[in-house]
User: Fold these one by one.
Assistant:
Number 1:
Amino acid sequence: MKKNMGSTDKIIRTLIALVIAVLYFTETISGTTALILLAFAIIFLITSFISFCPLYVPFGLSTSKKKE
């Protein structure tokens, strides 16, 4: 896997995941919505840690800095 996520992208995804986790554990969100958002949070964290987003590949996107 070629890395296709930059540091800003990883930070934003991690912050979104943390906000979702806080909302869930403070019981601000619940039910099916909470479970779906938690799934997104987990996916965001995994993609942040491996610096690869599979959805970027078909569109040819990359937020990482290009090496020239």
Number 2:
Amino acid sequence: MNRRSLPAAAAFATAAALLLTGCGGGGDSNSKDSGKIAGADQGASKSPSPSASASTSADRPKFEFPADVSYAFAWPKTGDPVKDAVLADGEQFIKAEDYAIVKQDPKQAGYRFYTEGQLTGSTQEYIASYVKVKARITGTDRYYNATVNLSGKNTATLAYCEDQRKTFDLYLKTNKVDRTPLKNPKDNYVLYNTALSKNDQGVWVTTKLFSDRGSDKCQP
């Protein structure tokens, strides 16, 4: 099965987590796909260009992913240093969550560094749903159509799309990858709306997240 399509027990926990953290996306999800795919990198230790705009005041965690996990972030710089910092830390939250899944550790420090409030707990539940069935992600995850809206000096929203066609669940007991196609091909594309705030370390932490699988705004 494609990633984020876990068996019923795990899917229930994931759905509950998303309901706890749901937030309205407003107008920040109306960007259009450029149609270009950025080159994939493996792990957050090879940071993409937006990371240069992020605050260096905090000692950010580093993530070393296995060779079978990679990313393609089609998130070009905006030219605005604040928006670029939001993009960079939003990207690191995605990787931090995945890293905890790879490490099979629901309490891994990385995602806690990039989240605050209720989202920290719901992210832990989501990671635990993978650990429960002894599975992790594999493949290349593509993210695109990122749009940042600033609301004051320390708050922002970030909307983006995910293309899950090349990322799957790897079951650790059998070392087998589930590549079962989704019944509805549109469900390979997911829209995310997130809220972020800048903490006292200068890190843009994600505080709320809402997802919409199969969103028309993310279709190719």
Number 3:
Amino acid sequence: MNAIDLNSVADIVFQLKWDSQHASHSECYAARGVNLWRDWLPDSVRRSLMGKHSWEQVCVGFSPGELYGNSTGILNIDRKQFSMQPQNGRFYPKGRISGLPGVFPQNMQPFRCVGVNNGHMAVDAAHPLAPHPLALSMTIGQVSTKDGERGGSSVDWVGQLTEGPGMQARWQGMPTDFFSDAPFIRQDEQADSRFYGTPRLVHHLDETAREMVADLYKRFVKDDMQVLDLMSSWVSHLPKGIKPARLSGLGMNRTELEQNMQLTDVEVHDLNADPVLPYGSDSFDVAISTVSVEYLTRPLAVFADVARVLKPGGVFAVTFSNRWFPTKVVRIWECIHEFERVGLVMEYFLRSGAFDNLGTYSMRGLPRPRDDKYAAELPFSDPVYAVWGMKSAASSDGRRLPVSPIAIQGPPR
């Protein structure tokens, strides 16, 4: 068995753990062919890998600012320098700011708007992970000795892992403004019952991504539980071997639901027309929603009612990727970075006032299955993102939770 040295090439799964004010976060990236001599890695990471073998795991910690410098990167600029309408807490490309030395219109590096006042705009240009302590673990896969160096480029694997993470957290506890400027309108505002009237018995994620979703749900769904599959279809993405006592499927197409042999009962229900779930309070141990949250036009009302039907301490787990029906996805979803979408779903949990113990997860970089129909075009599996929360004690009295007015905003009907 080869031990890692500077002549090694190794497959490594990187996992970054960090905490924000409201959630614990875990970011995973599967790196193939890490060249220990040529690729960029922090010195402490490279040293920790030396001498290790396949299937060993090593961990390295970083203090705030150690990887990405000082966390105070606040700039105050004239609002006229920015070519868009800014919203507090949101990220934008630096190239949209005119008059900054060394910044060109093509610069896509993100900055965060942290305040708009009296014609001025406060900008945080620091990396969003800079304020946080970070714990990086590495699980080593196959290790081989390279034949020799024949040129090629250097890969910044930690940079790839941390490109996006941090964006999902609120800035200094301030709620992120995802809700201005009609975020929940869609290209197609016809009744959803028409769009979903035709059965679609196809998978919306590749096989590897589906396995990652099932593995995530395995954390929460156990035998003999009462489980709600929200916005369900002909598959429920539960882990193999798990046998819930009840698996209720709520979706838009009866044919799809009846094809799902895991479901014990089905309800055809349009949450955009009526966000009240047709179930009693304190009915379920776990609720799951797979690649569907991006279609909700009244998400806060839905999240609040999911809390109503969960038992005290029940978990709501939401998973999604970067694929959707363009005509039915809400506008905000298409306008923001993939990790801001994680933040958007976190805002749904937080603003519902019904959940605590929030967590998020991301997995990127896994190879796409060779027999997948998109394998020739897309080398990587569909990324998987997840957000979950536990029904808080304050909302465990069985009453329906109040929802702020923004929760019931939707497209004109």
Number 4:
Amino acid sequence: MEIKIAVIGLGYVGLPLARLFSTKYPTVGFDMNQHRVDELMQGHDSTLEVSDELLGDAIHNHNFVCSTNLDDIRDCNFYVVAVPTPVDNNNHPDLKPLWGASETVGKVIKKGDIVVYESTVYPGVTEEECLPVVERVSGLKYNEDFFAGYSPERINPGDKLHTVEKIKKVTSGSTPEVADIVDGVYNSVLVNGTHKAPSIRVAEASKIIENSQRDVNIAFMNELAKIFNAMGIDTNDVIEAAASKWNFIKLKPGLVGGHCISVDPYYLIQKAQVYGVLPRVMFAARRLNDGMGDYVANQVVKCMNKKGILVKDAKILILGITFKENCPDIRNTKVVDIYHTLSEYTHNIDVYDPWANAERVEHEYGISIKTQLPDEKYDAVILAVAHNEFRDIDFSAVRAANSVVYDVKGVLSRDIIDARL
């Protein structure tokens, strides 16, 4: 079988994967966003997941092309769906992007073709929600005319160590033979190989618990931070001491945002309830982690009150708005919760982030950010994201004589800060 690959969705997951596949197979990256496609074909990825050099090589070698035209993926036979799986305002899974991508696949898929889903979902979505759409649009029969697989994405935005080619991938297929084909395609481009799951549902479940486990573990650390802060004990000191034991899992408290850990658990939470199981631990973890932005803001207010700083109309500087350090990704960032809670006291809040796209932040959150460090003095400075640039800031130049520096990430020297999470 001569493989020609189409990757549907060219975001943080789809683009690195498509670029990697193009090193071995003719690959077409498909996205409905013409601006995104134009940007990529000009050799630049604004997410910074693929370097200009790698992207340029892929395009110039004529093995990789990006398009918004369905005709450009009609002759492909291995379709990979890598679209977002968000939640709505009520934290219910929003499958519309997946349904739309499945319709796209249904318009072009042919007899003998394979479609592999990478989007994070609860067990059963691929076969119960997505493939019926492909069947309806194509008129073909699943597991008779076309086949399917699932290989959950494991992209970590901004991580230059665990890049897509170095990630060990879980694979699966709708028949044993298809599972072997899917596994072989992925294995051919991955340094550390694959783990072939026995079924699509097992592969789906494996992905959802990866992030749910981290969510629960971080929630525990956040709860400890609240306890120790109330007791006047430095949480980081406690963690360092406990980490001296060989089997202690060293995690830190913090804001839990982004497209994975703060979203994926809701998919399993909803599905569990369909089966009559109330996932109390996962519920509690989500509730606790979702409230950490508000908690940080109130801790800052508490510190200001202790130092006699009037919070009303105070000047506050927030360093960082992306959901993680050294990365432009602003999806579901919890820094906005800090901003909104503090805005109940003052509107003199500046947000500085050299990594974030100011237009996207304005569009997504209605917050105007600065991409250069302001030449002003502030009553409170909050390090919300641990960008490398922030570690070299001269805090004496931005803080007023009587002021507070609060370190959410625990990366600043003790002699600079007044408190940390």
